Amino acid sequence: KQWYQRRVRGLVLMYVSMGGYPSNYETWLFIRQNWDYFYDRFGHTNAGFDILLESVVGQFYLESDISEVIKFFDNKSDLGSVERGVKKGLEAANHRKDWMSKHRANAGGWLKSNFGPSEPVKRAAASFL
Predict the structure, then answer these.
(1) Which residues contact 41 (CB under 8 A, 6 or more apart)?
(2) How many beta carbons lie within 10 A of that of residue 109, not counting itself?
(3) Verdict on whether the full-model pTM lies above 0.85
(4) Alpha helices in the chain (DSSP H)
(5) How far is the C-alpha of 19 from the C-alpha of 4, rounded, in Å?
(6) In the prediction, which pLDDT does 52 show?
(7) pLDDT computed for residue 120 by the predictor
(8) For 78, phi and psi rounded to 5 degrees?
(9) For residues 100 and 44, what is the distance between their CA atoms, to the nearest angstrom?
(10) I need a surface site. Which of 5, 15, 86, 92 has the fewest CB within 10 A?
């Protein structure tokens, strides 16, 4: 059983590292579409599934994404060991949303003026503008 949990934690770490914006939404879609599979295997263990959910959900900052997560989990009666990760992820997402609503325009302009027209900066600034 320990080798299985180590493999699962490695898998979770891989997904967490891939879970940054914008791929976090793709990861969320994958988890959502395969929820029963993931939850049956990892939802009742301490294998790190809660950390994965916290990481992926916590990257959101759009109200529509946050609402989608809330609606999805409202339909789930027993979240077991992942409930804490979902709650922490939603907390982080709401903090991101609040920060973006206050500082979005300033941050995007600052990125453009301080880092020039490089492609990574254009992509980062676009998410702020």
Answers:
(1) 8
(2) 13
(3) no
(4) 2-18, 23-33, 35-42, 49-58, 63-74, 83-115, 119-128
(5) 22
(6) 84
(7) 64
(8) -130, 110
(9) 34
(10) 5
Q: How far apart are the first and last CA of the chain?
A: 48
Task: Kindly state the tokens that stand for 92.
Answer: 């982080």
52 contacts 31 by C-beta, under 8 angstroms: yes
- Amino acid code (one letter) for 40: D
Take residue 13 and report the two structure tokens written for it: 């770490």
Query: Which tokens in the block code for residue 114?
Result: 């301080």
Reading the chain (129 residues) residue by residue, the pLDDT tens digits are: 555 566 666 766 666 666 555 677 888 898 899 998 888 877 776 667 888 888 889 989 889 999 999 999 998 888 888 899 999 999 999 999 999 889 887 887 787 787 766 666 566 556 655
